């Protein structure tokens, strides 16, 4: 019995080491305010979402956005083909959170596994953006309207921070990017909003 237990622990240790060596972030999360597409799929508000309905915190892709990261048209899924339903604009019919332009908003991330964090950044679509087409970099204002530095600290299970919303009107999309400090990855969350 002792030998089997030792073998099991050794095997788990090797597996853990192999997973750590992949460089994949061990943290996962999504925006809950404003509600993200993956959260809408995960809680059953939106149907026909494929795998993301079971894995809303798993939209992980390369960091460095906007210079690097997911390709245009694949941004909402973090470049992950398993979650391509998030990039489908659904004819512009994703449920949208109503926000007041220029007001203070508390952004909330749900973190299911903590990981050292560089920052959280928020981009918004330009005026005239077409919500019936997949998101591209050209659709976004070039600079984030809010950046929250985290200095490599570990986030809690819920991360909340306040910021002033941009002066926009009509339907828009807010892209939240959670940049991991010690891997090459970030987590992406698209939230459909109406100002």
Number of strands: 9
Tell me, rounded to a whole number, the average pLDDT.
Answer: 89
Largest sheet, in brief, is:
6 strands, mixed
CATH fold group = Coagulation Factor XIII, Chain A, domain 1
Distance between the termini: 64 Å
Helix and strand content put the structural class at: alpha+beta
Low-confidence stretches: 3-27
**Using only CA atoms, what is the Rg?**
18 Å
| Elements, N to C (H/E) | HEHEEEEEEEE
Q: What's the helical proportion of residues?
A: 10-25%
Q: Give me the CATH superfamily.
A: chitin-binding protein cbp21
How many helix segments? 2
Keywords: Signal
Signal peptide: 1-20
InterPro entries: Cellulose/chitin-bd_N, GlcNAc_Chitin_IntDeg, Ig_E-set
Protein name: Chitin-binding protein
Q: Can you characterise this structure?
A:
The radius of gyration is 18 Å and the shape is globular. The protein has a single domain (27-194), classed as Distorted Sandwich (Coagulation Factor XIII, Chain A, domain 1), CATH 2.70.50.50. The chain contains two helices and nine strands; from the N terminus they run αβαββββββββ. The strands form two sheets. Strands 2, 3, 5, 6, 8 and 9 form a six-stranded mixed β-sheet that branches. The protein has a three-stranded antiparallel β-sheet with strand order 1-4-7, with no helix packed on it. Helices cover 13% and strands 31% of the residues. This is Chitin-binding protein.
